[in-house]
């Protein structure tokens, strides 16, 4: 086995509650992660020792700011392995709330585990992933998971969403750090988490119980995002909101025809795509 090819899937957040700032500077959250069939493509190959990287995006460099390189170096520092050639074809936009970089890092961890036959469990890979970023552990298992803590305390939800998801990607870049700082100004005291896991495991997704706290600071700064959410909510969606801190907005639809109808309006101004949950 000298090379492997993988799909590196994006995610959406169905709701995101910011519960308070911790002593370590991170924020406790609760959110429902859902992996979606929108992906980058990663190919990895063994080398004798070199670490090589190429991509269809020129801004991605072969350095430790690159989460793919970070992920490989984490494993190389812990295990006696050779080098790697990484080829990344990116589709998932950056600063979009879709977790593209974290997904790429998780895919490298899983891929190198196979490529070098390290035999690491998913739990071990999640712990290594957490050293890279809070969203990386989710992507080790993917699917649907309820996230708590900084997003790393994960409970797998054993169901598949039978919906169509319309992604709307305005040409706006939102730094997650900025969004958290703005929300800190609104948060007077820590909030208690809402225990919804039993409901998620036993029945349908209670979409009305979910909302995204980031919308309170993002929409006043970027009104067009509010306009998109409003249109989705009035066009037959079961749920509509930001993914993460944005800027991607998504709507969850029972009926693909409804999703396509509203997409035909939004696609005149924004990049859109209809995807399935994974």
Number of strands: 10
CATH architecture of the largest domain: 2-Layer Sandwich
SSE topology string: EEEHEHHHEEEHHHHEEHE
User: Can you tell me the CATH topology of the largest domain?
Assistant: Ribosomal Protein S5, domain 2
> Separation of termini?
27 Å
Q: Please count the helical segments.
A: 9
Structural class: alpha+beta
Helix content: 25-40%
Topology readout:
Elements: E1 3-21, E2 27-47, E3 51-55, H1 67-78, E4 83-89, H2 100-115, H3 122-130, H4 136-141, E5 144-148, E6 153-156, E7 164-169, H5 176-186, H6 197-202, H7 215-221, H8 223-233, E8 239-242, E9 249-253, H9 256-266, E10 271-275
Parallel strand pairs: 3-4
Antiparallel strand pairs: 1-2, 2-4, 2-5, 5-6, 7-9, 7-10, 8-9
Helix pairs in contact: 1-2, 2-3, 7-8
Describe what this molecule looks like in 3D:
With about 280 residues, the protein is α+β, with helices and mostly antiparallel strands. It folds into 2 domains: about 5-155, Ribosomal Protein S5, domain 2 (2-Layer Sandwich); about 165-275, 2-Layer Sandwich (Alpha-Beta Plaits), CATH 3.30.70.890. The chain contains 9 helices and 10 strands. The chain has helices at about 65-80, 100-115, 120-130, 135-140, 175-185, 195-200, 215-220, 225-235, 255-265, and strands at about 5-20, 25-45, 50-55, 85-90, 145-150, 155, 165-170, 240, 250-255, 270-275. Strands 1, 2, 3, 4, 5 and 6 form a 6-stranded mixed beta sheet that branches. The chain has a 4-stranded antiparallel beta sheet with strand order 8-9-7-10, with helices on one face. Strand 5 and strand 6 (about 155) form a beta hairpin. The mean pLDDT is about 95.
């Amino acid at each position: 086995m000298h090379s492997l090819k993988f799909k590196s899937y994006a995610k959406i957040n169905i709701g995101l509650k910011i519960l308070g700032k911790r002593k370590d500077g991170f924020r406790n959250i609760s959110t429902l992660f859902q992996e979606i069939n929108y992906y980058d493509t990663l190919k990895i190959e063994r080398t004798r020792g070199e670490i090589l990287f190429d991509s269809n995006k020129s801004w991605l460099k072969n350095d430790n700011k690159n989460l793919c390189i970070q992920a490989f170096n984490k494993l190389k520092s812990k295990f006696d392995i050779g080098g790697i050639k990484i080829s990344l074809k990116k589709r998932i936009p950056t600063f979009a709330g879709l977790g593209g970089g974290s997904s790429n890092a998780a895919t490298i961890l899983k891929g190198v585990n196979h490529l070098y036959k390290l035999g690491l469990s998913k739990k071990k890979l999640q712990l290594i992933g957490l050293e890279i970023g809070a969203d990386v552990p989710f992507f080790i298992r993917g699917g649907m998971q309820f996230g708590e803590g900084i997003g790393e305390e994960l409970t797998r939800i054993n169901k598949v969403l039978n919906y169509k998801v319309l992604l709307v990607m305005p040409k706006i870049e939102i730094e997650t750090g900025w969004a958290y700082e703005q929300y800190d100004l609104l948060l007077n005291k820590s909030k208690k988490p809402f225990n919804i896991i039993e409901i998620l495991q036993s029945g349908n997704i209670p979409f009305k119980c979910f909302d995204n706290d980031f919308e309170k600071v993002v929409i006043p700064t970027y009104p067009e995002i509010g306009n998109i959410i409003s249109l989705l909510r009035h066009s037959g969606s079961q749920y509509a909101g930001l993914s993460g801190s944005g800027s991607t907005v998504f709507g969850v639809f029972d009926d693909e025809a409804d999703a396509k109808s509203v997409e035909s309006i939004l696609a005149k101004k924004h990049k859109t795509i209809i995807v399935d949950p994974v």
